[in-house]
Structures are given as structure tokens and as C-alpha cells.
């Protein structure tokens, strides 16, 4: 199986790479090739019987769309796993907690002027759903590791939310549990190409006025938690 593992920022995939200051998760990987393509670096690796294509897209919906499509169309990924951090919206989610997206939507997609709901464009859908099988595997991993994994709605937009009123609006409009800047774009790409996907995020902040400081403080630690979880899933795929 060829598996894409992607994040948005270097820090989010760094735990997989040898340059990590953490115990490198890539010690489990046989890293054999780095490829520059379309302004990004893709790492080809092997993990047990799997071929891995690993990389980060840079922040935002356009960049993550490019990377997800490249991993599928150029590198032949058959499954895509996203790992990274998010702002918590559901008050149950504390910094460091893990959320697996059960649905994803774009909170900044707006043609409501034409009478459509927020997040909808014709021939699309407000919510895109990840693979039920990968969610099931995630649940198994969480049970084995005694991790309280929350499944929930992730809202994506080209906006770092550090504002209580915007956060509340997104929460109420989309019933969102967490906010980030790539997941729904990756979901749309995978859905279009019929590639099973999974979006995992660890909470780095709570998308309010303290979000910038929290993000800077917890980005690395939360990225590590998300990456560790994703690598555990590989054994079950
Ligand atoms: N990723 C992590 N925290 C975020 C936030 N508050 N807004 C958007 N994306 C994020």
C-alpha cells in the first residue's frame, strides 16, 4: 500500500524526520529519497510493507490542495493521513487532546448571497467525510493506548482564528469542534479522487485571544502527539 502522510508545517511532520530534536519517528522508516516538486519537498520512505510519501504543504487551503493532489496524482498515494494541530472550539477539547475528523467543512466558503448555506458550492457538499475504515482503525489505536480520542467536525478556512466571536460563529454555524486551515481542502481532493483519508489533529490553542501565544508554545508538543498516533495507525493498515 502507498500511504501519504502530510502536514501543513514543517513542525507537524518533523517528528517523522531525522532532523527532529525528538526521538525521531523516522527511525522506524527507511528513508531513501527526497524529491523537490512544485515548490515542496517530498520524502519517499518505507515502513514495514508500506511505501510512504511524506511531506508538508505550507499553510492554507491552496497549498494543502496542491500537496494532496501531488501525493495522489504524481506519487500514487492510495491512502492519505493528515497529521497536525488545530484550535479547539468544543470546550471539551484541551491543549494536547486529539481529535479525528468525522466530517470537514470550509468555514470561509461563502456564496450565501445566492441563497446557499455557508460552506456550500453547487456540485459540492458542506461536509466531506473521511474513511470509516480509517476512523475505525483510529478508534482501535486509541483504545489500545488508552487515549481519549474525540471524533468531531473540523472547520477549515484560510484564517488563523484568534478571536472569540469568530470562533463562536464557526462553532454555531457548522457545529464545529476544532478549527484549522487545511483539512477540508485535503478532504475535497481525496474525495474527488476516491482516496480514503484520515485527518488527525492535536489541539494547540483554543482559537481565542490567547491563541497566538498558545500556538507558539504548544505547536511542537501537540505535533508530536498527533504524529505518534498516526504512526501507530500504520501497523493496522
Ligand atoms: N491551527 C491551530 N490553531 C488554529 C487556529 N486558532 N486557527 C486556525 N488554524 C489553527
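Sequence proposed for the structure above (237 residues):
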Amino acid at each position: 500500500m502507498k500511504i501519504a502522510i502530510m502536514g501543513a508545517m514543517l513542525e507537524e511532520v518533523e517528528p517523522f524526520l531525522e532532523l527532529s530534536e525528538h526521538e525521531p519517528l523516522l527511525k522506524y522508516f527507511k528513508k531513501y529519497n527526497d524529491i523537490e516538486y512544485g515548490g515542496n519537498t517530498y520524502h519517499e520512505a518505507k515502513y514495514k510493507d508500506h511505501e510512504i510519501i511524506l511531506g508538508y504543504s505550507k499553510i492554507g487551503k491552496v497549498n494543502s490542495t496542491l500537496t494532496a493532489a501531488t501525493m495522489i496524482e504524481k506519487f500514487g498515494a492510495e491512502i492519505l493521513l493528515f497529521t497536525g494541530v488545530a484550535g479547539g472550539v468544543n470546550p471539551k477539547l484541551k491543549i494536547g487532546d486529539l481529535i479525528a475528523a468525522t466530517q470537514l467543512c470550509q468555514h470561509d466558503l461563502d456564496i450565501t448571497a445566492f441563497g446557499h448555506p455557508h460552506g456550500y458550492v453547487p456540485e459540492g457538499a458542506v461536509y466531506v467525510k473521511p474513511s470509516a475504515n480509517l476512523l475505525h482503525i483510529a478508534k482501535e489505536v486509541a483504545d489500545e493506548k488508552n487515549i481519549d480520542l474525540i471524533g468531531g467536525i473540523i472547520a477549515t478556512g484560510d484564517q488563523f482564528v484568534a478571536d472569540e466571536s469568530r470562533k463562536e460563529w464557526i462553532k454555531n454555524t457548522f457545529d464545529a469542534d476544532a478549527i484549522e486551515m487545511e483539512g477540508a481542502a485535503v478532504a475535497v481532493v481525496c474525495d474527488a479522487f476516491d482516496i480514503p483519508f484520515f485527518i488527525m489533529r492535536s489541539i494547540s490553542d483554543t482559537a481565542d485571544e490567547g491563541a497566538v501565544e498558545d500556538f507558539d508554545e504548544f505547536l511542537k508538543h501537540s505535533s508530536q502527539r498527533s504524529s505518534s498516533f498516526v504512526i501507530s495507525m500504520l501497523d493496522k493498515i
